[in-house]
Design a protein that fits this description.
The chain is mostly helical. The chain contains eight helices and no strands.
Length: about 180
């Protein structure tokens, strides 16, 4: 079995200095958004991972497996820290639902939605599922609503090209999880 460390290092070495600032801001948001709870480690992990994921997706139109795959079980395990089994089962169901929905979209139109987006949706489904079904549905719809203005601008200017969905998935999740904090 090959060692994932060199691949991870190769992915992260592509990042510039501003990414460290963005990761620090993401971690600060995550601590605030999770509230004073044991949810913070899961939120922080996902928020810090979001920085290189978004940067790589914008630059290369891909979400690397070396980041997306380990994020799923790591987030699931960290969601065990609050010791709320009902919420954890809800998180697993949210991950299955959001991942399944994005998998169906990928199968229907693989050129329009990559498999990296499906794997990222599973992680985001875990976090949204912790907060219940309305958060899962909103997390599924938010990226498309967020991407709509950019998509329309590209169509109007006749510069249509493949739009990296990863940053919109992450931005939509940030909006939904921020709303969950305000509604808690």
């Amino acid at each position: 079995m090959c060692d994932a460390r060199p691949r991870l290092r190769d992915e992260l070495v592509k990042l510039s200095g501003w990414h460290a600032v963005a990761a620090a801001l993401a971690a600060a948001w995550a601590v605030w958004a999770s509230g004073p709870s044991w949810l913070a480690p899961a939120y922080v992990l996902a928020a810090v991972a979001a920085v290189p994921l978004a940067a790589i997706d914008v630059a290369e139109r891909r979400l690397p497996d070396v980041l997306t795959i380990p994020l799923i079980p790591a987030t699931a395990v960290l969601l065990l820290l609050p010791r709320d089994l009902d919420a954890w089962v809800g998180a697993l169901l949210g991950a299955a639902a959001l991942g399944g929905a994005f998998l169906a979209l990928h199968v229907a139109h693989p050129a329009g939605l990559g498999f990296g987006d499906v794997k990222l949706a599973v992680t985001l489904g875990l976090l949204a599922g912790w907060h219940g079904w309305p958060a899962v549905f909103a997390t599924g719809a938010a990226p498309f609503a967020c991407a709509l203005p950019a998509s329309l601008a590209l169509m109007v200017t006749k510069r249509a090209r493949h739009l990296a969905l990863g940053p919109y998935l992450l931005g939509g999740a940030i909006i939904v999880l921020t709303a969950a904090r305000f509604l808690a």
